[in-house]
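Morning - NAP inputs below, output right after.
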Amino acid sequence: MHNAVFAAAALDWRFVTFDIVPGGAAAAIGSMAVLDIGGFAVTMPHKEQAAGAVDDVDPAARALRSVNTVVLRDDGTTFGASTDGRGFVDSVVAAGHDVVGMRVVVLGAGGAARAIVDALGRAGADDISIVNRTTATATEAARLSDVAHVGVIDDVAQADLLVNATSIGMGTDDLPLGPAWLRADLVVADIVYHPLETALLRAARHEGAHVVDGLGMLVHQAVLQQELWTGLRPDPAVLRAAAEAELATR
Ligand code: NAP
């Protein structure tokens, strides 16, 4: 996906993957200047260590204690950001829905859900209800925003936006909630993107709801990563086409 943007912009950058040994994120970040690595996209399980290893972080990374993007700045210092949550918000906005003032139900309280709760709060959502199988993690996620709280599934009846941030539906036809909760005036976003049209999105479309698929979050968080690394804002359509092509091979 990132290489498609570098090619489209004729940038002499390459995106390559490294397997980092457990606990090796700090050493990898420390080697950036020597190896002339401009940036990292960090995946689990290294996000927390990366947050502690960089010189400076953005507010989302500080709140989440998690970094998914590292930039080597011109002065040799490193900067860490968490782009997942804002990428999610940007994907909802790009689909034509303003999150300011929205009442939201987030299903799930894992790493992705936490980033989304944090970003929705910063973006001006009015109320964020977190519904999760394990209450303790929902309670912890609710601490990320003043407008967030642990909720119950009935909150969907008052919501403008429903987000599936659980892994339910990944490679299966399972639904994260009963289809009776879906209605035409609800925006339904699924962050699961394999399959691209999850059972939840299919059921939501059937009810006439507005749907936002999980590739939107992946693409828009990558837009933010590219901007941090190169200073250039890429066309989301280039990333989306590359991501769809990659998905088609799975
Ligand atoms: P995670 O930290 O492991 O969290 C998983 C969440 O799903 C937890 O809230 C967990 O509940 C819940 N869950 C899992 N199985 C469940 C079940 N059978 N019944 C009820 N709840 C269940 O994972 P994550 O990193 O947040 O990722 C979640 C999903 O988002 C994954 O499918 C991942 O691929 C996707 N994702 C997409 C993007 C994107 O860009 N679109 C980005 C990141 C992640 P408990 O707390 O009770 O265990």
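Note: The chain is about 40% helix and 15% strand.

O.
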